[in-house]
Amino acid sequence: MKKVRKFAGILTLALLLTACGKQKSEEQAAPEITEVTGGQTTAAQEQQSPVMLYRTKEDGTAALQGYDTVRAEAVRPAYEDEMQLPAEVDGLKVTAIDAEGFAGADYFRAVLFPDTLGEMGDGCFRDSSLGIFDICDFSPLTIGNDAFADCKKLNHVGLALGTLTFGDNAFIGCSTLKDLTISEIDMTSGEYFCAGLENLSDVGLNGNITLGSGSFSDCPAILDANHSNGKLTLGDDCFARCSGLDSFSFIASEMSFGKDCFAQCSIRNVMCSDCTGGFGEGCFRDCTNLEYLSISDGVTSIGSEAFAGCPALHTAVIPASVTEIGEGAFAGCESLVILTPEGSCAAQYADTYGISHTEEGEKFTIPVSEITE
Length: 373
Prior knowledge:
mainly beta; two-stranded parallel ribbon; disordered N terminus
């Protein structure tokens, strides 16, 4: 099963990068509806092309405000499936999409974005008919609050390459969203990025990623999640109460986890390999199904009550690199045996709190090849 998931992840990334190439090639040969001329200037510096509404920014570039769907009815079939946004309108470079620019729009399923774009405003695609959101190789691109909130037809999000910054509630209310892949990227999100999505089941994170508080909280369909190759910073309650989450793997991750970021999940296994950093306060608190914990050499800290209230936890592999363990880190773990070198911080902690331990921990460390297969 893990091999299948690994192959599926590789295939997803390949398809996403292919989509990036397609977007770049189509930007160079945009369809006729993006060849706009004859804009009219008003006192408020708002213009109209034959099908596009936009305004002129102070820097002399254009911010799109949506299609004039009344005047564009004749060409509507050309972008009902895949809408190409222009890189230029009336001689002005397009650098932004205004707040609410395409909010409520029902005339496209996917959007191809010009590489001139640097900003997308609050609610820019809120409650629209967007079904697929693939974007890559943007450096940097800032996306506002509620940008894709309540897009009821959105089922796939793929983000690859470049630098992205999202505001709060980016995909909240996207009830049909099933998979989200973030690959080879520097990305920061605000609070509640994908919170409360009932059908989101597949989450893959790769690169330098910072997720705000509650980003994936209360997503019951997430079964497996993973992060690899970069810095992973998780805000408080980031994956809290994901009742279907079975396992989370960290591979070559620099970890920094906020309070209760996996609290009350159904997770059974936590495994990290070639990682650094530490587990925050209450990180896996009250994960009552958690059975196995494997921490790789390089991790340095385990916060207070990080694994408290995990009665099923029977084995924790803790290396000598862990030099700080907070109070009550394993409180309520009645069946726990800690596998750790003699004289380590974990061994001293175990002696202090009456937890069984053995120095044969190195024999139980799971290699990265087994985690990813």
